[in-house]
């Protein structure tokens, strides 16, 4: 159910972004941060937003929640609907611990190889799964692999979700050490940035990759201190308010 009027509405409301949205361009991290900061996850200059994708996971998510508790941080969890359906009680613990939930799609498939109706169904189904398991209606969306297509934008709008990517990642899905994860983040992170990590290894290249993620969090605390930033969820980051017409 993709109405042309809605597609036009998305194009208009995403302003200049929609005219040139291509996955290749949006995957250029530095460029998207400069041209469409709200979408990239650029927010208040005294803030770093911390986000986790691919959960919930019965092992990784509790370990991440414990680490966040020790640091006194809250974060945003972009959940896979399929994982939520398998582990609804883990999804519920994320909200119970005070964190923000968001949508990463139902299955972890690149939107480039899916039809409009398929993407639309997937995002709506994922949002419904997150809401059912947590009792909270999510407001943000990040597509699998960060590949945001026009179909992604339309599906997100229909589900009442704003797309948010990231400005710095830890490549923790392939990393075997906290040093490597923290070093990768450190080379990219700037004040106002959004960090992408993973609380699940369900699509990672390294089994138990979340262990390096968890171990890297204290180093992220040092990085944030050096930047003069607090660490928190996207809901406190101000990225869409700053982005104005783009969201
Ligand atoms: Zn993912």
Tag the structure with descriptive keywords.
247 residues; alpha/beta; TIM Barrel; 6-stranded parallel beta sheet; two-stranded parallel ribbon; 49% helix; disordered N terminus; disordered C terminus; binds zinc ion
Structural features, described:
- 49% of the residues lie in helices and 12% in strands.
- The chain has 247 residues and is of the alpha/beta class.
- It has a single domain, classed as Alpha-Beta Barrel (TIM Barrel), CATH 3.20.20.
- The strands form 2 sheets. Strands 1, 2, 3, 6, 7 and 8 form a 6-stranded parallel β-sheet that branches. A two-stranded parallel ribbon has the order 4-5.
- β1 (47-53), α6 (60-71) and β2 form a beta-alpha-beta unit.
- α9 runs parallel beside α10 (150-158) and α11 runs parallel beside α12 (210-227).
- It is globular.
- The model is unreliable at 1-21 and 242-247 (pLDDT under 50).
- The structure holds zinc ion (ZN).
């Amino acid at each position: 159910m993709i109405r042309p009027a809605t597609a036009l509405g998305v194009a208009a409301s995403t302003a200049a972004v929609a005219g040139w949205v291509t996955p290749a361009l949006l995957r250029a991290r530095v460029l998207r941060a400069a041209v469409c900061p709200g979408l990239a996850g650029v927010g208040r200059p005294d803030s770093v937003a911390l986000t986790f994708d691919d959960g919930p996971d019965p092992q990784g998510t509790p370990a991440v929640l414990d680490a966040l508790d020790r640091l006194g941080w809250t974060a945003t969890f972009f959940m896979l609907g399929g994982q939520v359906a398998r582990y609804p009680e883990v999804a519920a613990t994320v909200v119970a611990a005070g964190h923000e939930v968001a949508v990463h799609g139902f299955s972890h498939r690149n939107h480039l190889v899916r039809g409009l109706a398929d993407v639309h169904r997937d995002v709506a189904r994922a949002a419904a799964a997150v809401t059912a398991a947590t009792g909270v209606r999510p407001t943000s969306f990040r597509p699998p692999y960060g590949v945001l297509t026009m179909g992604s934008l339309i599906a997100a709008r229909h589900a009442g979700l704003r797309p948010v990517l990231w400005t710095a990642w830890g490549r923790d899905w392939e990393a075997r050490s906290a040093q490597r994860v923290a070093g990768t983040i450190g080379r990219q992170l700037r004040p106002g940035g959004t960090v992408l990590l993973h609380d699940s290894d369900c699509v990672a290249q390294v089994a138990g990759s979340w262990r390096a993620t968890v171990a890297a969090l204290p180093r992220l605390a040092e990085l944030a201190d050096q930047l003069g930033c607090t660490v928190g969820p996207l809901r406190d980051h101000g990225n869409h308010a700053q982005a104005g017409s783009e969201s």
